[in-house]
Amino acid sequence: MDLWLEWARGPLFRIAIAFLILGLVRHVAIAVFEIAWAVRRAGDKNIPYRKLARATLAWLVPAGKLGHRPLYGLTTLAFHVSIVIVPLFLGGHIALWARATDLAWPAIPNLLADVLTVIATAAAVLLVIERIAARGPQMLSRFSDYAFPLLIAVVFGSGFLAMHPALSPVAFRPALLVHALGANLILIFIPFSKLSHVILMPLTHLISEVAWHFPPHAGSEVGLALGKENEPV
Amino acid sequence: MSAYAMLTDTTLCIGCEACVDACKKVNGLGPDRLWPEQKAIDDLSATRYTTILRRPGPRYVRQQCRHCVDPACASACLVGAMHKTPEGPVVYDSGRCMGCRYCMVACPYGIPRYDWNKAVPYVRKCTMCYDRLKAGKLPACEEACPEKATIFGEREALLKVARQRLRDNPRKYVQRIYGETEVGGTSVLMISDIPLDFLAWKPRLADQPLPQLTWAALSKVPPVVIGVGGLMAGIYWVIGRRMKMQALAAAAAEQAAQAAEDPRAGEKGRE
Amino acid sequence: MNQRLRIVKSILWALVGVWTVVSVGRFAHGLGPSTGLSNAAPWGLWIAFDVLGGVALAAGGFVLAAVVYIFGIERYRPLVRPAILTAFLGYVAVAVGLVYDLGLPWHIWHPMIYPQDHSVLFEVAMCVMLYLTVLALEFAPVVLEHPLFSHPFFRGVHTLLKKSTIWLVIAGIILSTLHQSSLGSLFLIVPYRLDPLWYTPIIYILFFISAVGLGLATLIMESLASGWLFGHRMRKDLLSRLGLAASVVLGLYVLVRLADLARHGLLARAFDGSWQANLFLFEMGIGFVLPCILLAVPRLRTSLPGLATGSFLVIFGVVLNRFTVSILAFAKPPGVTYFPTWPELAVSLGVVSGATLIFIFFVEHLKVYSEDDHAHPGEPGYIKPWRPSFDPATLHGLTPEWLAGPRRYSLVAIAGASLAVGLLPRGMLTKPEPLRTPVARARTVEAMQVDHGRGKRVEFRLVGSDAGAPAGVKTVPVMLIDGDRNGRIVFFPHDEIAEKLGGDTACAECHHLNLPFDRNTACAACHCDMYEEADIFNHATHIDHLNGNAGCGRCHDDPSRVKSRATATACVQCHADMIAVEPFLDKSQKETMTGLAPGYMNAMHDLCVACHELKVKENPNEYPASFAQCDFCHGESENIDLQRLGPYVALDKDGANGAATPGRNGID
């Protein structure tokens, strides 16, 4: 058990974090090329920075959505805030980083972490329920759309149990092992799945903004390029 | 001025390691640690330029750079980072070294050590306290030795001392001054009551300095450059010329054949 | 693009990914953690394969240039361009491999400003540098043909280079002759380390001949491989002629080598059954004689499998020869071996993969194979078809086709890189740590005690197990302290010293910490490493003994703090009885005990030497200065006949008598 734990926290975590970082860098790099390509082809070379910032911000702070679909908006906001803050600023995690790299940064109080963890777990479960309940999303959903929130719920739940062994029905080390393995799984999946929206969200907006700015006569130019300029479109 | 040297008489050594301590202090080497690159913690290492080898008996044999008179390491080094000073010590210039470790390969006594666990590594070995010599001081180990097992002086004088000791105690000593002639002689001489062959890679080292072996090949470089260059240019010229001649001949033959076939064509060509 | 090429490129990119990560570890923490090199084996895989092997493998360039340009044998012209490109990339790979092997690679240019012309390596370095330049100039026209360089300036350079080809070729042949042979001369300076079956004063001639043979074989292999990869028409007629040439060269090599051995009277040694002799026979048989025969038989030489086998064996044989000369037959002290670590292998493979990818890139974008006549991007009249491609990772994204390659290969590269991050050895990730030296417990034996009087050290002589002590001689139990079992023993008359310190009440003077249920824990139980600090806190045991989850709060008592070693309560809070009341050692340690025990040697010295020095200071009449000197304890230890300690030594080998070594599984 201890060996498994050491493995999950050591080599496996290194693989996961490296894959996460390199994978996200890869997404950004490819997106940059895509944007360059899109800009080169676009008729309107202006990049609407203000509009982009607004769109991204609107996604980050779903104030509008709060009014539109209050329950969903609230759940998703709480969920996202929690799952960003707790893994990065939990004291125990920072202690692990410090042990491995001598890097450390301020931690949030354990009590706040506990509250956020409970919120994240509950919100993840709630999101799945909402997805099942609402007809539109249900039709569009794939397996992964249910699996990821549940995986996140498992990771946060087991993390909470590891933090509070006195309250836990399972032993400390199994709880910690589930927590570590699940977390590594998520890290590895981020660049591979819809979870890549952590980095791609603003870039997607940028690409779609730029790529669809074709000049008015774009259609006839396509014909020109294809050598079919005289044929009717 | 004759070059300086050191003479170690292993029969006088009590294995106290005062020389090791003094060496560490003078060179600022710090404590030893057991790295995978060495067999024992008291092997020669980047933090230990000299050590005491224990042989059955007990006998204590000091191991350090032998400061060869014609050092293989200095001849191997492609940037002259290792070099023999006129005073006797073989010293190392870390500013020139590129870290190829050919000196470690070349040393017949296997002395130079490397900073294997540093991102900026240097070759490490005894310098016979060259800086202290220049300042008019003695090597630290010689100064520290409580039994005067290691003494310092001019090489010729030390050879005399060694010969005298061998003569005075012919039954006690192995009748050989280690370092007098092998590989062209070394500036660290040793006399002992046990054979010290184990200090080198092979029991009997020849008297020929090792750099002579590579020089035998290296001195052939200029003739090879001229020979190969000349040969290639010559062949190119000969073959090129022959091909040109062949082409001309072929053309001429073709022309002749054509001319024979159609005499009028030949006349036309001449017009 | 064909499937085969795509798979090969994917594998190569994955290897490049691994290589990138290994590079970071190599340059961050030095050669020690990343390689298997040691003081006795200072040259390893990177010299044997990347440098010695790489230079020889790239010999095809100058051989073929000589054949076509000097000897005017025009039928080989189609092979010239790939041969020059292979040679150029081969030498680039050599230079890159060398950067990894050099301790101070940023001084790689020093031979130019600090020449030392008596060094063979200096000659090699200069030749390789110049030859790399020559090869670059020889290949440059191929690059300048690309429409990208249609500017008149580049056209002018192109013409100039074309005109000077013959001079470049001659310079290349001179330089190659020099350094291919000089790589052998490197080993002239080690007559005492290199086995006589390989050491010969004409080793440079052998290196040169074998390099020519290897160069020819590499040309064949490379043509076969690129034919397979790109689906080119293979010039079998040309290749089998090259095979014949290689066979002749190998035959010459075998003759020269055997004649040289015979001249030195070493032929008999090659058959004496020692491992060196067997290695020699293997190398000569499989690597030289067999391919020489294979390539000499016309029927085999003209078939693809025959050609492939023959040229592969040549490559194997010559590279093995370089390994043998620089590693296998190179003397090391007994017990020292060299075996490359996986990061070393990853660098070698990565460098080769990178060079191969560049080769493929050049073949795809330049006219390397003259019959390769499909249209190139950038050429007039070439319109690239546009097709959407999807990201293999996320399965979305509508991108230009030219991004399809980067998308695929970047994915395999980062997969390789991430795996490497996970598998890197400890020392390459964090600061390198020295080896551990487990400590064996001291053992008690009966010994005769010889007292030489006040101030002199008390001598002990072991009693033979059969004979026993002579009648009338006093024997006492004495502990043999030799933590690392190197035979240098300190005699420690435990009972006598305990008596002197005050009998039964004095245990705590030295036994400052005792394990639970143990009255006088042996020193080696905690100080379980000879030189390094050891972690003696066992988290798993504590969890088990404190009833699992319920017990966490016993040590991690403040729920608002991070649970770590630093914030846990001190051991003494629970284990009051574990720590002796009045240890001779610094008593302040009691409150700050962290679970880290100093190394055995330091612990012994701190305790014994400190006490001895104190006694000398307090009571100089009874304890003269010699009482506090090294010699007093570390005396005549060499005199011990360890054979007589048979049972103890044997027990130690089984580990039954070894020290308790608490595992390092603290959770903090």
The fraction of residues assigned to DSSP E strands of chain A is under 5%
Gross morphology of chain A? globular
Overall SS class of chain B: alpha+beta
Number of domains of chain B: 2
The percentage helix of chain A is over 70%
CATH superfamily assignment of chain A?
Transmembrane di-heme cytochromes, Chain C
Low-confidence stretches of chain A: none
Shape of chain B: elongated
CATH class of chain A, please?
Answer: Mainly Alpha
Annotated CATH architecture of chain A: Up-down Bundle
Query: Helical content of chain B, roughly?
Result: 25-40%
Helical region count of chain A? 12
Oligomer: heterotrimer
Could you list some keywords that capture this structure?
heterotrimer, A: 233 residues, mainly alpha, Fumarate Reductase Cytochrome B subunit, 12 helices, 78% helix, 0% strand, C: 668 residues, four-stranded antiparallel beta sheet, two-stranded antiparallel sheet, 6 strands
Task: Describe the structure in your own words.
The complex is a heterotrimer of chains A (233), B (271) and C (668). Chain A is 78% helix and 0% strand. Chain A contains twelve helices and no strands. The longest helix of chain A is centred in the N-terminal third of the chain and has 31 residues. The termini of chain A are far apart. Chain B is an alpha+beta fold and 271 residues long. Chain B has two domains: 215 residues, Alpha-Beta Plaits (2-Layer Sandwich), CATH 3.30.70; 49 residues. Chain B is elongated and about 110 Å long. Chain C contains 27 helices and six strands. Chain C has a four-stranded antiparallel sheet with strand order 2-1-3-4. Chain C has a two-stranded antiparallel ribbon with strand order 5-6. The longest helix of chain C is centred in the first third of the chain and has 28 residues. Chain C is elongated and about 100 Å long.
